[in-house]
Amino acid sequence: MKASTEQxxxxxxxxxxxxxxxxxxxxxxxxxxxxxxxxxxxxxARIFRGxxxxxxxxxxxxxxxxxxxxxxxxxxxxxxxxxLEAGFETHESFTRAFGAMFGIPPSAxxxxxxxxxxxxxxxxxxxxxxxxxxDYGDVPPPQVKELAPLRVVFLRHVGPYSQVGAxxxxxxxxxxxRGLLGPGMKMFxxxxxxxxxxxxxxxxxxxAVAVSRPVSPEGEFGxxxxxxxxxxxxxxxxxxxxxxxxxxxxxxxxxPKSGYELRDSPAFxxxxxxxxxxxxxxxxxxxxxxxxx
Length: 293
Known about the structure:
It is elongated, with a radius of gyration of 22 Å. It has helices at 6-22, 30-37, 44-52, 56-74, 79-85, 91-102, 106-111, 164-177, 243-258; strands at residues 143-147, 150-158, 187-191, 204-210, 221-226, 229-237, 261-262, 267-271, 284-292. It contains 9 helices and 9 strands. Strands 1, 2, 3, 4, 5, 6, 7, 8 and 9 form a 9-stranded antiparallel beta sheet that branches.
C-alpha cells in the first residue's frame, strides 16, 4: 500500500480548486484539471465529485454564478453583459440558472442582498480556504480484493445509461443462442465514461457476460479480458439510478483514508440480479474500482 494520506488527497484537490479559480473564464477540460491535481484521468470526474460534492461542471457553473451575483451589486452593466461573462449564451438561460441557485431573478437580487447558498465543500468564489470534504456519515467501507483476470463477451452501447436495456436484451439473446447462459452466469457492465463529464450521446458502456470456454468475436460482439489485480469492492442495493451516489461514497469517503491510489483502468459493475425479476429497491450491484498499493 502506498503511503498516501488523507491530507495528501485534500491538498491535491485544493490545488485543483485554486487552478479553477485562476482560470474561471477558460474552457477547462477535466484532463487539464486532473493533471494539476496529479489524479488519474480515468477516475478524476468521480474523485472530484466525491471530494467536492459537485461535478466539475457544476462547481465551475456555481462559481461563475456567485461572481455574477457579486458583480450585480458592484457594477451597473446590464444583466445580459453579466450573463455573457458568466458563460451563458442568453439572458433567459442565465436568469433561470441564477433563480434556481439564489431563489430570485438577477434584477431582484440587485435590489435585495441574498447570500449564496452554502456549498458542500465550503468553497466559494475567490475563497478555497474553507474547503472541507462532504460529510458522508458512517458508510460501510468497500473490501479490497485481489481478482483474477476474467474473459467476457460484450456488446458496446453508446448513449445514455437509461437506454442500456435494449443492448442487454440483444446481448442475452446472442449469448443464449450460443449456449453461454446458465446457472452461475455472471453479468458485468464496464463503465468507460462518467455521465457527469461525457455528453449523453457519447457515453460508452459494455454489456458483458463471463465465458468459460473459447468464444470468437462476431460482428458487433467482441471478446475481451477484464483485468485482474486489486479492486475496492462495494455492494450497492437499490435502483441503478443511485449508483452514482455509491461511487461518490467510495471515491469521496473511503479512498482518501484508504492509503490506496487508483489504477488507470475502468471501473466495472457486476449485477447479481435483474430488473426483470427484482424491484428497483432490491437490485444488487457490486462496484469494482481498480486500486494500486
